[in-house]
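quick one before i forget lol
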Amino acid sequence: MTFSFTDLVEVDLGKLATAVSDWKKAVDGLKKSAESARTGMQAKSDSARWAGVNATVTREFVAKTAKEVSDLHIEANSIYRVLEDGHTELESLQKQIKTAVQVDASNLGVRVEDIGEGRVRCFFPHIRGDSDERTQEQLDQRQALEDRINGILAHAAEIDASVARALAKSHGNDPNNAGHSRYESLNDAEVEHALELAHKGKKMSDAELRELNELLRYNSAEKDGEFATEFYQGLGGPEKALQFYAEMSIDGTGGDATKTRLNAVQDLQRVMGYTLANATDPDHRNHLDPSWGAEFRRLGTQQIGWEKGQWNKPYGYQVLGGLLRYGNYDSRFLNPIAEHITQLHRKDPYFFLSNKPTGSPDTYGFNPSGQLGSGNEPLNSVLEALGHSPEAAEKFFSQPPTAYNEDGTIKKDGKPGFDSYLDLLTDKNFEWTMDTNSANVLADEDKAKTVMGYGPDALGHALEAATTGLPYGSDAVSPPHSKEAADIFHKLVERYGGKPEDLDDSPLRDSLGNITADYMRDVQGAFMGDGGTVVGTHGPSAHLGNLDVETNPEGLSPGTLKNFLGAVGKDPDAYGAIITSQESVTTDLVNDGFHDADKYKELAPEIANRVHAGGEIAGIMAESRTQAVVDEKIAEDAKFNEGVATADKWAGRIIGMGIGKIPVGGEVAGWVVEDIQASVVENFTRDSSPEALKDRDVFLEQQQASSAQAIYDATYTAAEEAGYDDANAQSQATAAKREIENSYGLGRQRAGK
């Protein structure tokens, strides 16, 4: 019977708590009985001088009886431990689902309906007189809530099934023989069953594979690492773990695999990756021995087989790479592997591509996801791993490299031949490879271009993690930038601001746009020439310096940052991120100025100073967009509109950094974020028709007017909130608008140089 929504919401867990208490009493009583039998009856029997039949029958009977009492204690203890853990887990999940339904669903205005099969649907009920129109944000929140509730239900179903299975194994269905499977926790039972399934390998049915995935999904994130560690240990060691995953990935991605099997194997890739990340974290109470990392490195260049007589065998790193693409890994495990792989690639970029299965879909192999490569090139895989592992990524790009031998051991007194991985991987002459199973890929120019971009794209993800402190793609507010992270951004600006042509049509640009958005206060501080005194920085400064002096004390030559922004802004997604973050920082600065109005003799000049940098950046972005769409024709203007529409998360992230006077997480902050999001979409979504793009100057003038209007609106609103009457609010907003128009033109001129 399927575990339903109603089951979890309505079940009286108090009865289960009572059962736990009763079994605890039974355990305590049987423990005393078992001890008494061992030290009393059994001890006397062992020391007695039996003769005749008593020497065999009676002595044996006494020993058997004492053992049975001990077995009863073992069985009772297993049942108690499993019930106790099951109760704790289900109680937590019940609280979560009640909160989701009674609070979150109510606040969102949706209803939750049990649709059977252990699932619910969330929907907005029709209200008479209501248009039933919903914003995309509302629809996204509804879907997120539905997914969360269904996830809670799936987890509860896994707990319910695991408890039932463990109780049956503890009892053994034998009324005359106690003490069967022995468990100290529900975790023990879950690991045991996960390994039972895994040891079947590709003989697992689709249902069994889904069951294994559920066990891994809901237990791999345990903070103490117990389940994750015991699972990988139970697979039999690093090579056995690779063999299991390799066998399953090929089974699920082969030509005769069903869509159901492929989906299950793609899920296995994810959950095994998350589990490995948890198991290899040395800070967890339970974790794999560090020798696992050394053994993975040794196996990296060895061929791995899992069937007798297997002809074509992958290298260990090709298999491991599929797992590394998922999970936040500790640097002590990941970075030696990342360094080793990068050095192997530098020595021979095509070493790992010699055995790729040409002619198969890109999902075939050890990266069933098919995202950013088929998985034959482990460099792409390990860069994706760094992209999900911020602490490891920061160290990888900021610390001196360690030289490794081909077998993964450290090369004593060896030199890797380069100074940093940042320099190596951003070198224009670094040789990236085409990680695809496609045959004759060079005959398809578009496909070849896409495939050749997989490596740089993965590099961008790793750089995002290294500089922001978040896994790439995260919507969270980044933690304060570390000095090392800020230094990496400084070097990126220096590298590509010095040679912006190296970013022409580069897949790196969208990631560089996201990084720039996260460091927008550093960027605007550089344009203001105050090193961030007024703007503030989110952690240590990136030291972009004063861009308007002939000799820059921070090491960046004049124009470097402008060149960097101009090159990055030609990418539609980067443009959207930078524009939205710029508007957010500028809005925050304006609000901050009005909040501290009593500090200034005249407020209007101060507000003008605060919006100047934003206007200049907007001008640079407008010129970049126009060059990309009108001059170079490397992107469609509609794509820039999409970039603006999908960059709305940046408003919340910038305001959420909490550097200005807007209360983070408060109602005012929510209004400000919504206003910024609406203003950016309204003012930077342009007419993309061919007629509108014919005259570049007209197009740029429209952009200028939009930028000015956006700041006018933000300033007017801030003035009103500060208590200014309409006339004074308009006056302040008009002055800010005029400053934007002037600085916008300056930005255009600089970007056009």
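fyi DSSP finds 28 helices and two strands in the chain.
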